[in-house]
Records
---
Amino acid sequence: MSAQKKSVLVLGARSDIARAIAAEFARKGYNIMLAGRDTGWLDRDASDMSLRFQIETTVHKFDALDLDGHEAFFDALPTVPSIVVCAVGLLGDQEADVQDPAAVRRIIDTNFTGPAHALEVAARRLAATEDDTAIVGIGSVAGDRGRAKNYLYGAAKAGFGEYLSGMRQKYVQSRLHVMTVKPGFVATAMTEGMDLPGPLTSTPEKFAKNVVRALDKRRMVYYDLRWRVLMGVITHLPERIFVRTKF
Ligand SMILES: NC(=O)c1ccc[n+]([C@@H]2O[C@H](COP(=O)([O-])OP(=O)(O)OC[C@H]3O[C@@H](n4cnc5c(N)ncnc54)[C@H](OP(=O)(O)O)[C@@H]3O)[C@@H](O)[C@H]2O)c1
């Protein structure tokens, strides 16, 4: 089977980061498939993107939590995409969520189980083509070390990051490339209302440019240099010191 050249499927396409990444690929001439829960909203975005970039766009209903529906979701796509980007994620409210079993499951499944399974299904299909293909999974620096502020979300992102790492190794001899993206702070709906430190905060547009550039260079992990340095320090602190810090 042959993947249609130059098409990108975006899972969780209503995310601000996803939209900026989709626009970046559209600017480079890729056709875009937008997938998410609110297809009415995505329809409007797709029309706008088609007009702005003179590309083909399609919209597809996708729920990361509907694991049983993932095969059928990919079956229904107009073509096998050459690149699949997964931006699905949910930060939640750590203090409230850890006291609610349904919320615990929702955070773990939205950040780990659902995206991991969807990308597993995608990987089999992309690897079966005879083309160069890629999977881009968006994790988080929160997965680098468990912190009191967000360890439920962080643990799920850590699991997702390790899943992608294993998938990358599995497909390393094939034409399917797997890239992990680890954002620090990006000013989006997810971080709205937070007091973000300017020098460590990116815009979705700037971040998206770097992600696409990193994929062009076949990077395995995209991690902003400032965050790599900061998290390098945090992850190397001995546990006994780390637990007393305010990180
Ligand atoms: N912004 C940051 O500082 C930051 C930092 C680290 C990591 N990240 C990660 O970057 C990614 C994009 O985040 P963002 O900042 O752009 O936030 P966002 O705008 O809140 O995007 C999250 C997206 O996930 C989608 N989603 C949630 N549950 C879903 C489900 N069950 N099925 C399908 N889609 C679902 C949401 O869809 P709906 O529109 O339908 O709700 C939304 O479009 C996320 O994975 C996030 O964890 C962001």
Note: Residues 12, 14-17, 36-38, 62-65, 87-90, 110, 114, 138, 140, 183, 185-186, 188-191 surround NAP (CB under 6 Å).
---
Amino acid sequence: MVIRTGLAERILKGDHLAAARLITAIEDEVPAALEELKCLYPHTGKAYVVGITGAPGVGKSTLIDRLIGGLRERGMTVGVVAVDPTSPFSGGAILGDRIRMDHNRDRGVFIRSLASRGQSGGLSRATLSAIQVMDALGQEIILVETVASGQAEVAVTTVADTTIVVLVPGLGDEIQLMKAGILEAAHIFVVNKAARDGADTLRRGLEAMLGLRARPGGSWAPAVVLTEAISDDGVAELAEVVLRRREFLEKRRQPLNPVAG
Ligand SMILES: Nc1nc2c(ncn2[C@@H]2O[C@H](COP(=O)(O)OP(=O)(O)OP(=O)(O)O)[C@@H](O)[C@H]2O)c(=O)[nH]1
Ligand SMILES: [Mg+2]
């Protein structure tokens, strides 16, 4: 397969079709695609990357769908990478539930699903490349959904500025996640399906565990947010926490002593 040159240039102008083509070519390991990707490197590093992980079926995609709505309302452009998705995105809610957003028409949203192709541990190169392409395309926030399945959920923390772990009451995930080391790596914990019995118990359990973590002054204090994604409850609060974390990182990035450079 020969890919048309100039994809990188078109992506930098915000061309979604070119971005989709390049990601496909990268997945297919077309050599020319890697050259195009290299041209994009100098234009990456601007996006805020948020990893969202958790056991199958906890509501990651539904939450992302809802978050897209909240982020678009705030005028942000959004990219979504879903690794090994088992359920489709239905369309984010914007302005509550009154307008269903069509991701295919909204130029501010770019969604891509990828197969991890059996790579154990680590994220596939295609995943990292898709994030870079969306970054170069100009998506300001990129949400990366991965199913917690051993090491994959830890891997996402290596590329994400912020890691969100989604739990639901009654699964006993606290214990699974501790084993995987995700408790230490996560910045935001979501208790989704919070209308179920046990949501408060899970929240208190998480808060107790997180309270035991020694934190040096000035570091991020992990947040616990309760949501009922299907009815949008708590999603606005989650969006606020996600953006507060970005502000926190931006402040920290400023040099401590600008005069000394
Ligand atoms: N009752 C209830 N159901 C929910 C909630 N959030 C999601 N669901 C439902 O849970 C099911 C799984 O939701 P998804 O968003 O596909 O979950 P996921 O974590 O992305 O699943 P995988 O990608 O398969 O791991 C769907 O039937 C959702 O409608 C919630 O807050 N409350
Ligand atoms: Mg999903």
Note: The chain is about 40% helix and 15% strand.
